[in-house]
Amino acid sequence: MKIGLIYSRVRFEEKQIITALERRGVAHDLIDDREIVFNLTPQYDGHPEKQHGVKFVRPEKFLQYDVALDRAMEFTRGLYALQILNSWGVRTVNRASVVAVCGDKLLTTAALSQHNVPSPRTEIAFTPEAALEAIENMGYPVVIKPIIGSWGRLVAKINDREAAEALLEHKAVLGHFLHEIFYLQEFIAKPGRDIRLIMMGDEIVSAIYRSSAHWVTNTARGATAQPCPLDAALETIARNAARAVGGGFLAIDVIEDPQRGYLVNEINPTPEFRGSETATGADIPNKLIDYLIQVASGKS
Ligand SMILES: Nc1ncnc2c1ncn2[C@@H]1O[C@H](COP(=O)(O)OP(=O)(O)O)[C@@H](O)[C@H]1O
Ligand SMILES: [Mg+2]
Question: What is the pLDDT of residue 39?
Answer without folding.
Answer: 81
